[in-house]
Write a structure and sequence with these properties.
The protein has 254 residues and is α/β, with parallel strands linked by helices. The chain has one domain: TIM Barrel (Alpha-Beta Barrel), CATH 3.20.20.70. Helix content is 34%, strand content 26%. Strands 1, 2, 3, 4, 5, 6, 7, 8, 9, 10, 11 and 12 form a twelve-stranded mixed β-sheet that branches. α6 packs parallel to α7 and α8 packs across α10. The model has no long low-confidence stretch (mean pLDDT 91).
């Protein structure tokens, strides 16, 4: 196993970093540029920035946010939100992103994943899969799109397999049931995805304790562990998380 990566996530709305619970009840968590610089200095391996209102507001990602953040960091930056076509991807990458994360648009038009992979390279294409529990689905998890507001009646694990076939390079599953709760990652959901694909999987949604990061790797099969609340509100530092994982036998880059 290669070294596990730690990825803070900047959820963006109205130019500020925000964080909610179950995708709602947002509270402000600071300035994106200041946070990005801080997290790189703290030892973050990668950074995510998600324009969480773009799809709901029917607009594209704010490129000025991407440029401002990318200018102050050297670590890889994954940007998502409002990605609807190849031109959007090109503009986001040109603004300084290393990778682009797509969600609703990919569900709506799966060929976008394939075309993007061919044009920009598989390693730059992340497919985010937001899901909630639904026993009517074969895996028990149903895709939700549009910022978690619209279930689509499609199985999340089957969609992950399809994304791999289409040429996605990374899968980013987020459990709506766990998001922002600090109760731990949704391990059954993360594991179902990681067992279904050979791609790197980013665990997301619910980190609240140091052991949650360990569980995401050992029980969930994650290659990258994303967190927001515990870093934004300084519950733990990235150094603390890495030291904890290393102490429990997980390879990390200190």
């Amino acid at each position: 196993m290669s070294a596990i990566k730690i990825m803070p996530c900047l959820d963006m709305k109205d130019g500020r970093v925000v964080k909610g619970i179950h995708f709602v009840d947002l509270r402000v968590a600071g300035d994106p540029v200041e946070n990005a610089r801080f997290y790189q200095d703290e030892g973050a391996d990668e950074l995510a920035m998600l324009d969480i209102a773009a799809t709901l507001e029917n607009r594209k990602t704010r490129l000025e946010w991407v440029k401002a953040v990318s200018e102050v960091i050297q670590i890889p930056l994954t940007v998502g939100g409002g990605i609807n076509g190849l031109d959007d991807i090109e503009q986001v990458l040109a603004s300084g992103a290393s990778k682009v994360s797509m969600n609703s648009a990919a569900v709506r038009d799966p060929s976008l994943v394939e075309e993007a992979s061919k044009r920009f390279g598989q390693e730059r294409i992340v497919v985010a899969i937001d899901a909630r529990r639904n026993p009517a689905m074969p895996s028990g998890f149903e895709i939700v799109v549009s910022g978690g507001t619209r279930p689509v009646g499609q199985d999340a694990v089957e969609w992950a397999r399809r994304c791999e076939e289409l040429g996605a390079g990374v899968i980013l599953p987020t459990s709506m049931d766990g998001d922002g709760t600090l109760a731990g990652y949704d391990i059954p959901f993360t594991r179902a995805i990681s067992d279904a694909v050979q791609l790197p999987v980013i665990a997301s949604g619910g980190a609240g304790k140091l052991e949650h990061f360990y569980e995401a790797v050992v029980e969930g099969g994650a290659d990258v562990v994303l967190a927001a609340s515990v870093f934004h509100f300084r519950t733990y530092s990235i150094r603390q998380v890495k030291a904890y994982l290393k102490g429990r036998g997980i390879e990390v880059v200190l």
